[in-house]
Design brief:
With 447 residues, the protein is α+β, with helices and mostly antiparallel strands. It is built from 22 helices and 6 strands. It has a 4-stranded mixed sheet with strand order 4-3-5-6. Strands 1-2 form a two-stranded antiparallel ribbon. α1 packs across α10. The protein starts with a helix and ends with a helix.
Length: 447
């Protein structure tokens, strides 16, 4: 019986024969546009500026472009930089089975190879759908086990997704693909301890680079164990550490981009907080609750969320993105959460700080992974509650194409005019029609 490594290699090498429905291609385009948009905005964050400075220190005139600039570096380094800035704001999409962020790993790696090889846009979309397929199916094997052990799934599974996508674009042989998977498996890393720091977005860029690097090395003949994901000392034993079920790899259901789908973010902060924010903002609007009226805010969330989102005191924007207390307080005060809420000036506002001290976080053992309940008690004795099973932007409560296009334009306008941003967004929505990436890269570089 074929093991996981063999099954993944077979999926990659046989993907060209898979009939891709238009719905899958459409969803891929939306994901690519969203990723590029949040990257352009993320380039203005402190970690984005550090990565741009790093890129400028590299030999110029390489194979792939740093988005939003005219600077070109080697394909792996472009994947590193673009992947990191894509996650700088924590505003990017998620896939639930993998418990992580797929596009910020896949899109930078695919663009780097696509630009290097002058590939058509449709081929990149195929690679995207494949990479998501690999990460989501492996995520179903893993379940929450690795995540609960502190591994960051975006990085650990992302390196294999990037490897799968780029191996496909490079048209590696079956043996080369097995080697690429083995190399990538040894490069997997990323710990949740670094959540709330600049190293968390670096996880995404590193996974994008490592997966691409593994494919390039395998193309040149570097070898690895052909069963690197399986058995004693293998990838799955290392990260899962218990018996695992392979049936998801034999699943004949819809492609993961349609089946499990993607969650797109309305707010530039950790996705684990989003349903809470939907609840708070809805209550504020419906009940006209003012901060000075509040006695207590009770936030019930799945216990898994509390371990890394219970941050009663924050000093920096990256910490604030992972603080239930700060995000809920800011949302109640202003009725929204936008980029500026994570500036130092907003974080230290006395009225927000006062509200954070009124927030209690309670484990909701009856709540699903993405559900939440908010109860607001006022000084005059009134009580208001709101409960959600999942946030807006989820597959069952999707944002429209218009919503996501507007999000792209808002993000891109951090570095370019609104008209230029709209042109870039429309080009990305027509990615499957592009014979290569030159037009899109030029539009992104015009800033």
């Amino acid at each position: 019986m074929a093991g996981v490594t063999e099954k993944v290699a077979n999926l990659i090498c046989g993907f060209e024969t898979v009939a891709l429905p238009e719905e899958a291609m459409y969803r891929g385009k939306i994901a690519v546009m969203d990723c590029v948009g949040v990257a352009l905005a993320g380039s203005q964050e402190p970690v984005g500026k550090i990565m741009h400075e790093y890129a400028r220190s590299l030999p110029p005139g390489g194979e792939a472009t740093i988005w939003g600039t005219t600077h070109r570096v080697s394909a792996p380094e472009a994947a590193l930089v673009n992947g990191t800035i894509s996650h700088a704001l924590d505003y990017d999409d998620m896939n639930r089975p993998m418990l992580g962020h797929p596009s910020i790993v896949l899109v930078p790696a695919l663009f780097a190879v696509g630009e290097k090889m002058q590939l058509p846009g449709r081929k990149l979309l195929e690679g995207y759908i494949l990479g998501l397929e690999v990460m989501a199916k492996l995520g179903k094997i893993f379940g929450p086990a690795a995540y609960e052990k502190s591994w960051h799934a975006t990085s650990v599974l992302g390196v294999l997704g990037s490897c799968a996508s780029t191996s496909y674009l490079l048209r590696l042989s079956h043996q080369q693909t097995l080697n690429a998977i083995g190399i990538a498996a040894s490069e997997a890393s990323g710990i949740k301890k670094n959540f709330g720091s600049m190293t968390k977005p670096l996880h995404a860029g590193s996974a994008a680079r490592k997966g691409l690097w593994a494919a390039l090395l395998a193309e040149k003949g570097l070898t690895a164990d052909p069963q690197a994901l399986d058995g004693t000392f293998g990838f799955l034993e290392m990260f899962k550490g218990e018996p695992y079920d392979l049936k998801t790899l034999n699943d004949s259901g819809p492609l993961e981009i349609i089946g499990s789908g993607l969650v797109f973010k309305q707010y530039p902060c950790c996705g684990g907080i989003h349903s809470l924010l939907d609840n708070v903002i809805d209550l504020r609007q419906k009940e006209a609750i003012r901060p000075e009226q509040v006695k207590e805010i009770e936030c019930r969330v799945n216990p898994h969320r509390i371990t890394y989102l219970d941050r009663p005191q924050v000093q920096e924007g990256l910490e604030a993105k992972f603080s239930i207390q700060y995000c809920v307080a800011a949302a109640l005060k202003d009725g929204k959460i936008v980029f500026s809420h994570f500036s130092k000036e907003n974080i230290i506002q006395s009225d927000i700080q006062s509200l954070t001290r009124k927030i209690r976080i309670i484990p909701g053992n009856d709540l699903g992974e993405f559900a939440s309940e908010v109860t607001v008690r006022t000084l005059d004795g009134r009580v208001f509650s709101s409960r959600r099973s999942e946030p807006k932007g989820s597959p069952n409560s999707p944002l429209s194409e218009g919503d996501l296009f507007n999000k792209f334009v808002d993000c891109a306008m951090m570095i370019m005019s609104s008209s230029q941003a709209e042109k870039a967004g429309k080009a990305l929505l027509g990615l499957e029609k592009e014979k290569d990436l030159k037009n899109i890269i030029n539009l992104l570089s015009a800033a």
